[in-house]
TrEMBL record:
InterPro entries membership: Pyridox_Oxase-rel, Split_barrel_FMN-bd
Species, as recorded: Rhizobium ruizarguesonis
The protein's name: Pyridoxamine 5'-phosphate oxidase family protein
Length: 152
């Protein structure tokens, strides 16, 4: 079987983002790349996601430049891939960021397969206690994509 490779338009790339929920996030620290799978929700130029503390968050705090790759399998053996270059921004558990955290949660919780431990609604923590929930956004700087279509 033969394939034709086609570049996606910006509108086609954003359509993949709007319908996507799972991708691979790449970050880099001290010239060392790191790629992890994430669930996400996209709205108004921002990719929203959630994490617990760990390497991914530490590295994104050290270097805000990140990349997200989303793919879709087509019928047969075709595929579509979109790559987003963006800027990481954390939404800390403070009054200033409360509405952004709740908005991220509201988008993510629409799909039952996002990380179940994170399905608990964020709420105020007792004095002296910090929330382990880390909500963040990837602000889209650029987006590109390609699709491989089978040719009969």
């Amino acid at each position: 079987m033969s394939y034709i490779l086609k570049d996606l338009t910006q509108a086609e790339c954003f359509a993949v983002l709007e319908h996507g929920r799972f991708g691979h996030l790449a970050c880099c620290k001290d010239s060392q790349p790191y790629v992890v799978p994430i669930y996400f929700a996209y709205a108004k130029g921002v990719i929203y996601s959630f994490s617990m503390p760990g390497r991914k968050v530490d590295w994104m705090r050290a270097n805000e430049n990140v990349c997200l790759q989303i793919d879709q399998r087509g019928t047969g053996k075709g595929w579509t891939s979109v790559v987003v270059d963006g800027r990481f921004e954390e939404f800390p558990d403070t009054d200033l960021w409360r509405s952004e955290r709740l908005y991220a949660w509201s988008l993510l919780q629409k799909n039952t397969d996002w990380w179940e431990i994170g399905a608990l609604k964020p709420q105020a923590q007792p004095t002296g206690s910090a929330s382990a929930h880390i909500f963040y956004g990837i602000f889209v700087r650029s987006v590109t994509g390609r699709t491989a279509l089978p040719v009969d």
